[in-house]
UniProtKB/TrEMBL annotation:
This is Probable queuosine precursor transporter. The lineage of its organism: Bacteria, Pseudomonadati, Spirochaetota, Spirochaetia, Spirochaetales. Pfam families: Vut_1. InterPro entries: YhhQ. The chain crosses the membrane at residues 6-24, 29-45, 51-72, 84-103, 123-144, 165-185, 191-218. It is a multi-pass membrane protein. Involved in the import of queuosine (Q) precursors, required for Q precursor salvage. NCBIfam families: queuosine precursor transporter.
Length: 230
């Protein structure tokens, strides 16, 4: 059951990105970055069994942010992609502050969600610190690497090369940094290793499968289906 849901969520993420892009242009891609960053940081707290491995849930939506920065790099250049990374940084910081502030309020005697919020958002500072480091290092590498490969092999037939060459190494950086900062000391070493391997494997699969969608995004832009910035 989890496998079918994972595939459905994967497809939904890619289609939502294209929908946002189609309706709002480049702005829509900037909108998706904070959605991916915030949702992933909540979903990552849930462990699931999928394809016979133990993995964190937030892999798909987080990995989709790399597709967004690659579309920005391909269609608008390195500066636009770097701006999206900054949007992601600020979104994580703002969400952490607001979530923590919500926990400081004294709940009403009729409240029934405070403890649940503590379980989720009480872990947010460490998760967000891990995300900030992982997101920053991996996305900076991704933007740089995509630009590097685009200059080396600029032809359209090599879009798949620069998309995958940049994203798969960036995902490795992201998985190493996030797993160590977020979960070191929280799980036994064997579980920690399994989380890292499963996280990277699933992100690698997402990176591989997003290739047709970057081609679609490029085609949509060149055919004039994408609106001007709003």
């Amino acid at each position: 059951m989890n496998e079918y849901l994972w595939i459905a969520m994967l497809l939904a993420n890619f289609l939502f990105i294209l929908l946002f892009y189609r309706l709002f242009g480049k702005t829509g891609l900037y909108i998706w970055i904070p959605i991916a960053a915030i949702v992933a940081n909540i979903q990552v707290l849930k462990l699931v069994d999928i394809f016979g491995i133990n993995a964190t849930l937030g892999n798909i939506v987080y990995a989709s942010s790399f597709l967004v920065t690659d579309i920005l790099s391909e269609n608008y250049g390195k500066k636009s992609a770097a701006r999206a990374v900054l949007v992601g940084f600020l979104s994580l910081i703002a969400s952490m502050c607001l979530f923590q502030a919500a926990l400081w309020f004294q709940p009403s005697s009729d409240d029934w969600v405070q403890e649940s919020m503590k379980n989720i958002f009480g872990l947010m500072p460490r998760i967000v610190l891990a995300s900030l480091l992982a997101f920053g290092l991996s996305q900076i590498h991704d933007v740089w690497s995509y630009s590097f490969w685009k200059k080396k092999w600029p032809a359209d037939r090599f879009i798949w090369v620069r998309n995958n060459a940049s994203t798969m190494i960036s995902q490795l950086i992201d998985s190493v940094v996030f797993t160590l900062v977020a979960f070191a000391g929280q799980f036994p070493k064997d579980v920690l290793l399994q989380i890292f391997l499963s996280t990277y494997l699933l992100k690698w699969i997402v990176a591989l499968l997003d290739t047709p969608f970057i081609y679609l995004a490029v085609l949509m832009n060149r055919r004039g289906f994408i609106p001007e910035d709003i």
